[in-house]
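Subject: Protein entry, chain in single-letter code together with its fold tokens

Category: Structural biology, sequence-to-fold work with a learned token vocabulary.

Notation: Tokens come from a learned vocabulary of local backbone shapes, not from coordinates.

Start of record: The labelled sequence and token lines come straight after this line.
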Amino acid sequence: MDRISNKLIGAKCKKCGKLYIPPIYVCLKCNQTEFGEVELSGRGSVRTYTTIRVPPLGFEEQVPYNIAIIGLEEGINVTARIVDKNDKELSIGTAVVFTKKEDGVHWFASAS
């Protein structure tokens, strides 16, 4: 498996069609255990966020940084890091787009 991916991949239950961000092993809606991969649009908006100013060990060089819950247009949420190249203040409702998945972390940036 690649360390960096430029595609946002979801898991779709083969029985009921419910979408998830992997990993998922049992569908929470129908208890099915078979899933197919689907490429998601990567477009969404910030539902909530926090700015980390006191980091855990190993992240000292990255502060401050934002962690957000992104509501994707497909109707599911994903936890992600936010990179804002314009240095705009992040706010709830900000439109964002997926940029990459690196080492298991989803990265999004402001859509504007």
